[in-house]
Amino acid sequence: MSLSSAAPVTRTVSSARRFSTLTHVQLAALWFALFAQWMTVVPVIVPDQIARLLGPNAALKEGVSGSVIAAGAAMALVVAPLAGALSDRCVAPGGRRRPFIVTGMLGTCVALALLAPFDSAGTVLLYTLAFLHLQFWWNWAAGAYAGLVPDVVPPGERTRASAWLNVMTVLGSVTGNAVLLALYKPGHLGAALGAFIAIALVCLYFTVRGKREPTPVAAHEPIAWRAFVRSFYLDPHAHANFYWVLVTRLFANMGIWSIFTFMLFYLQDAIGLHHPVDVLNALLGAGAVLAIPASVWGARLADRHGVVAIVRVTSWIMAGAAVGYVLLALHPALVLVVPVALVFSAAYGAYQSVDWALALEVLPTGSSAGKDMGIWHISMVLPQILGPAGTGWMLSWVKGFAGAGPAYVVAFAIAAAWFVLAAWLVSRVRLAPGAAVAVAAAGD
C-alpha cells in the first residue's frame, strides 16, 4: 500500500448502469458484520462485563460503563476520518479502500478475541485498553468503507444503496442478538466472540469480491502533511447543507446513545427485571426485525417526499418514544416497554434507511469522499462520547439521592430534547427541488 500527496483520480462508475440486488448485498455485507458487533458489544457486552468487574450492584456502574464506551468513541472520532482521508490518497492496485478495509477487519477479529479473558478476571483499566484496541480497528475499516460507497455507487443508485445498507444494518443487529441469545453465557464469552469473528471474515470476503473499486491513478509522492491537515476544514458558507446534516445527525445520535447505552440498566433498575440481558436481546432483535419493513417504507416515502421530510418525521417519532420511556420510568411496566421500544425501532429503521442518501446528497464534490464521509462519521461517533459519559455519570449521581426512577426520567427527557432539536433543525437543509426524487428516478 502506498500513499500520494493528493487524493488520486479514479475511474468513475457509469451512472446509467443499474446495480443488481446481488451487487448491493455484496457491497453492504461489511456493514452487516460491523453492526452485528456494534449493536451487541456496545449495549450488552461492555455494560455486562463492566458490571462483572465492579460487581453487579456497584453504585458507579453506569458512570464507569459510560466512560469506557465514551473513551472508545473518542478513539473512533480520530481514526475514522483519518482512515478515510488516508484511503483517499492510497494508490494500491486493488483499490484505494481495500487495504484499509482488509487490515481493519482482520485487526477487529484479533481485538474481539482479546475481550474474552475479561469474563473471569481483569481490571477496568485493562478492559478499557482492550476496548480501545477494538474501536481502533472497527473505525480503521469503517472510515475507509464509508468512502467506498460514493466511489462505486452511481447517483441513480444511491437511494437503493442507502436502503440496502440499512437492511444489512438491521439484519446484522438481528444476527448479533441471535448470537448472544444462543451462545452468550455469563463467564463464557468465547463462543459468541468466535461467531462474530467468523461472520466478519465471511462478510469481508463478500465485500472484497463484490463490486470492483475504480482504479486509482496518481503519482507516488510523499504526503504534504500541512495541506493534508488543512483539507479537513470545509468552508461552512460553501457547504452549509453538509454542516446542517452533520449537526442534525449529531443531535439525533445524541438522543439514541443517551437511551441505547443504558437500556440494560434501565430494565434492571427502573423496570425491576432480574434477567435484563435476555429481555434486552429479545427487544433489540424484535425491534430490528420490525425495522426492515420500516426501512423499505421509509426509502419509498423518501423517493416521493424527499429525504429531509423523512428524517424530520422520524426524528419527531423517536422524540415521542423517548417521552414514553420517561412515563414508564415513573410507572414501571414491562408490558408497556415493548410497544414503546418497537415504535422507536421502527422510526429508527426508517430514519437510517435515508441516512446515507441524505449524506450523499450534500457531500462536497471532489475526489476526497473518504475524508468527507469520515467527517460525516463524526456525527455518529461524537454522541457516543458525550451521550454515554454525560448521561452515565448523571444517572449515577441522581440515583444516589433520588433513586433509579427519577434518574431515568431525567435521562430520557434529555434524550427527547435531542430528537426535538434534530427534527426542528433538519428543515434548514436546502436541497435542490426534487433532488432526492430525481436521484431515485435515475436508477429506474
Automatic annotation (TrEMBL):
Q: Does the keyword Transmembrane apply?
A: yes
Q: Which keywords describe this protein according to UniProt?
A: Membrane, Transmembrane, Transmembrane helix
Q: Which one of the record's GO molecular function terms can you name?
A: transmembrane transporter activity
Chain ranges passing through the membrane: 27-46, 66-87, 99-118, 124-149, 161-183, 189-208, 242-267, 279-299, 333-354, 375-395, 407-426
Residue intervals of the Major facilitator superfamily (MFS) profile domain: 24-430
Q: Which Pfam families match?
A: MFS_1
Q: Is-annotated flag, keyword Transferase?
A: no
Hey, what's the signal peptide range on this chain?
none
**What is the protein's given name?**
SLC45 family MFS transporter
Q: Which organism is it from?
A: Paraburkholderia polaris
